[in-house]
Each structure stands twice: as C-alpha cells, then as structure tokens.
C-alpha cells in the first residue's frame, strides 16, 4: 500500500520531515496495533531511512502502547545508524509530549539509568532545549537537576550531550546553572568535561 512512499523515503539523504510526515500518514489511517506491526516490519529494512520511519511511528503511538516504548528502548537503541539514533531521541520526546512531561518524569529517570548509552542520550537530546518544554519551562531547576545527575556518565558521547543541554539552559537561566555547577566535585575528568561545556555561555 505504501510501496511508493517507502521507496521515496529510501532516497532521502538529508532531513527527516518527509519521513515524519509519512509516519503521521500511516498513523492516521491505521489502528495503534496495526501501526506497531507495520513499524516492526519496517524496522527490518536495510535502509536506515525506513528504520527511522519505524522509530517515528513507535514514538507517536508509545504513549498509548507500552510495547512501542519498549521497542524503542530495547531494539531501536541498538541500531548502528546515527540517523536512527537521532530519530530515537525525537521519538522519546514525542512520548513525553503526548504523555505530559511531568507525568513522564519516572520514564525519563528510568531511561537515564539504562545500561545502553543510546537510551540515556535519547532523553537528553530529545528534550533539548529542555526549558522550552512544558513543565520544565516552569521548573527549570528540575531539568538542571536531572541533567546534573548524569554528569559522570561513563560515555563521553552522553556527557557531551549533558554539557550541551546545560549550556542551552544557561542562556535563560544562567544563575541556576551556575549555582548547580558550583556544587560539583571536579576531581573526576568526566565531570570536568561537562562543566566546561556547560559554562561556555556563562563565561562571556
């Protein structure tokens, strides 16, 4: 039914809007259950663009279908394509948006403590800019606290994401970020890396 659309997607080299549009089209024409079955089938594709489509679909239905959220966490997070990992982050943000960011706090914490760095990073990147999101817009300190809790993450890839997310927040909430950074033990190199990134706008 969607053969032409799928073929068109495989030729996209930059951007994701068309893939997201395709996901929304599928979702608007099928039940949640059928969408999940289609997503799992699409995820078997050799083309990262089609696997990205699967991730978008799962993100859009995950607030109403727990299995889709689990699939993102346990299957999509293992994908070797960086493009798919970017869509995983967007899919997680879609879940939080649809569920409500405050209601999603326990899931954020669960993912931030997951053994796979791609899962942890999906939270951090997906919600950037954190204080532009509902709940965190009114509670910037909560966003800072969640991010600060993973400042010593074993993955440099994740720590870089944490530092950049705090740097984003510091543009509007510099005093809050500065106050948090002043409490850090910088004897560990991991925290030093995040600290340096987070302070970039504070030093100007």
TrEMBL record:
InterPro entries per UniProt: ARM-type_fold, DNA_alkylation
Pfam families associated with the record: DNA_alkylation (PF08713)
Transmembrane portions of the chain: none
Gene3D superfamilies in the record: 1.10.1240.70, ARM repeat domains
Protein name per UniProt: DNA alkylation repair enzyme
Organism: Propionispora vibrioides
């Amino acid at each position: 039914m969607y053969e032409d659309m799928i073929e068109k997607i495989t030729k996209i080299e930059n951007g994701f809007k068309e893939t997201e549009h395709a996901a929304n089209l599928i979702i608007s024409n099928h039940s949640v259950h059928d969408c999940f079955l289609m997503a799992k089938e699409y995820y078997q594709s050799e083309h990262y663009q089609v696997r990205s489509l699967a991730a978008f679909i799962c993100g859009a239905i995950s607030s109403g279908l727990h299995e889709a959220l689990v699939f993102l966490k346990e299957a999509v997070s293992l994908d070797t394509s960086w493009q798919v990992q970017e869509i995983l982050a967007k899919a997680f943000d879609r879940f939080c948006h649809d569920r409500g960011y405050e209601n999603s706090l326990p899931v954020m914490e669960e993912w931030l403590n997951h053994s796979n760095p791609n899962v942890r990073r999906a939270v951090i990147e997906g919600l950037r800019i954190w204080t532009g999101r509902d709940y965190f817009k009114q509670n910037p300190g909560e966003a800072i606290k969640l991010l600060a809790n993973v400042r010593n993450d074993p993955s440099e890839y994740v720590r870089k994401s944490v530092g950049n997310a705090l740097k984003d927040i510091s543009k509007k909430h510099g005093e809050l970020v500065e106050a948090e950074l002043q409490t850090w033990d910088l004897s560990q190199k991991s925290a030093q890396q995040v600290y340096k990134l987070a302070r970039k706008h504070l030093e100007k």
